[in-house]
Known about the structure:
B: 284 residues, mainly alpha, globular, C: alpha+beta, Rossmann fold, 34% strand
Amino acid sequence: MVKLSSKTSYYLLLLTAFVLLLPMLFLVLWSFSDRWMYPSLFPEKVALKSLNQMRLDPSFFPAVLNSFFIAIATTFISLLIAMPAAKYFSLQKLLAPRWIEVMIYLPLILPAIAIVTSTQTLFLQVHLTGTFFGIILIHTYFCLPYAMQILLESYRQLGEGYQLTAESLGAKPWTIFWSITWPLMRPGLTTAASLVFIVSFSQYLPTFFIGGGKIITLPLLLLPYANNGRFGLASMYSVVFLLCTMLGVFILKKAIGGVTYGTER
Amino acid sequence: MNRKTLFALPFILLNSVIIFAALFKGLQISLGYYPIVGLKDFSLNNYQQVLVEPFFQKSLLYSCYLALTATFLSLIGGVALAFLLMKVPSCWLHKIINLPISLPHIIVALMIMQLISQSGIVSRIFFQVGWINGMDQFPLLIHDSRGFGILAVFLYKEIPFVAVTTLAILQQLQLGYIEVAKHLGASTIKIFFSIILPMIQKTLFTLFIILFCFTFASFEVPYLLGNPRNQTIAITTYELFTQADLTTRPLAFALNLVISGICLTVSFLSLAISRFLPGGRKIW
Amino acid sequence: MGLSVKNIQLSYGKKEIIRDVSFEVKAGEIVALFGPSGSGKTSLLKMIAGIQPVSKEKITFTEDFTQEKTLLVFQDFWLFPHMTVVENISFGLKVRKFAKDKIAEKVEKIIEVFDLTGLEKQYPDQLSGGQKQRVALARAVVLEPKLLLLDEPFANLDQQLKITMREYLRRLQETYQFSIILVTHDRDEAFQLADRMVILLKGEIHQIDEPKEIYYHPAGRLVAEAIGETNLVRGVVQKDIFRAENVELRVHNPRNIQGESLLFIPIGIETSIQNSGVLAFVKRSEWTPNGQQVLLEIGNTECTLTNLSEKVKVGEEVYLTFSETLTVMRP
């Protein structure tokens, strides 16, 4: 272990942050460039060319809407499934924590390409390919680990005590959930929802295979542009992508909200 | 099954259906039973082909190489970064370090391309400074055989991820243990290996499993930044799947199962190792 | 009668925690459920409160005792962290659908009684230990229960606060007239508060009696040790005569023990120093705020006594006469 002074640590961290930030700045620069040929360090012409190209692309706006719709739906369903499951696993005493961890992380361990292609074959038979429902299902499968991990930790921190106390004071299950569990779980739910939203919004393979070419989302448009080296356009799409995710997270934060007094732990 | 287990049912149901259906279908087709195409015999030919043919072996090994390199470097870099983060409480720097985690891999790949391709920013800087005289003098860092660009993407995303996760654990650690050890005369190195490491090894192994499996089977990043002559296994599978000729499907499914098997084996091996290392017992 | 608990049995997997527990609680009395930690007392309370499943015939409520009027206050208080003191106290009333003005009225009154004025809008993390305790109690008492179940309520408080709160609870109980089942492993607490004590050891009830009775006549060695009584002199008993080295004493022998036995001497028993009696050798004498604590050797066993009629010197040999006839127990 190297002994580092606080100052050295600070500068090292600063350097790291700079290195991480730099590519992002260039991304933004690329989106607003018109001509940026080698070897200039900065764009020769700054223009909204990429922005216009993007707007005129007929598949752009529908893709954004699709991405949003699928991500919000996936968030909703993921939370609906993860909440009770996380509560159950936080209280049960049968399985060791590591086994539960494995169970939750399985979608992250099994190769996505394998699951997606096999699922496509399955979904074909039940006519789920090319449907929003099918895509939302597969997205949920991939997003659940994130939701479960966060909610499991939240429920563990919450503990049983408050709910038992409310029960002993005569409250019925619905009252307990609404007056006690929900207010105390909201910050955790917001974090989980934000993460699920971002992960779903970023999915490529599942949407590609299950969408069957009929449903296009933003990542599906983005990848080919990046692949073809069309930096300007790809960067613009990326910037829009990031703005969308920020918007989504913002909406979720407002909807599920926040930190009420006493929930910081 | 009492009422409470009902709570976990949707979760278990969704995961089970997808995983087992995938498994079942995959087994069925890969063993040769694919009536749509007219194949009806069971055999292990596909598996044999996948495991023996040099083309597939090369792809598997290349993916392993990328996964191991990326994961090890990320773990070391991430833990180091975590300690830096612990020492420097600046809120802004922490927030910046957090950013790469929410960026999708495709966008990061794009950024890396813009940065270190032969026509990228770094190349331009080298040109301006006079270190090179032309685009082609800049070393090939993407689409190269060692997967430099691919590794760069994974490091960019995974080092902050490891750092933030480890930081959370480190902050939960009771520093009392460290104070006592210091008081009893232990050196910093001894403290790190006897006290800190066992406490975070569980997390590190979990991170290893997740990162290895993800990198091993990653598609988007190698697709964008890879070398056509060195395919990763996900790309090989993808190509087998997107061919018009459906008879390659059984092969593809065999490959699916093989890589799933590899991921699961690596995972369980890691968990086993973690259990027997100091600090691994109490959570089983 | 009021509450009747019959033949409760509790196991955690293969481990049997409670073998067979039965007792009763009458209106207006304080019963202490006394035993070491982990003996299943909390589960017992949960069963009585209705939060833990148990077969219906085992817990019976009669007269005006009902399960709805039985409230449990947990050891960790569990004040809802996102609610103010007033909101916490009102919770039970809201659940029972009381009218808003009625709630405000009751809460205001209870805040006064529990000495919480000025703290109405505070949140639990702004309160001290004693204040949290009072809010937790107020939250239950405002519902006017017939039976209050307290699970080691004062365990998390410091010594002085404990004594104050115990007095407080006594006065509350006299005012509101509810019964209490108090789970505790603190014997002083049980002695101070309880009308009756239920000694729960190793999953069984060993004695149910008034604290004074238990102190002077514990029903066996386990009970004596559980309440912190350590004076057990080894010797031999025949009918009602106990003999040990330098000791010959007439004793109570309720179990008709023959042969090897232990003579139980309560630490606080009134002992007078006279010219004849039981021979004892003074080994140590310490000052405590409650008087002199003397370590004596009686019949080859070291005993502690705190209620001697006069001061004794270390190294002295004295003759002790006890104010009551002592009991013998099985070893």
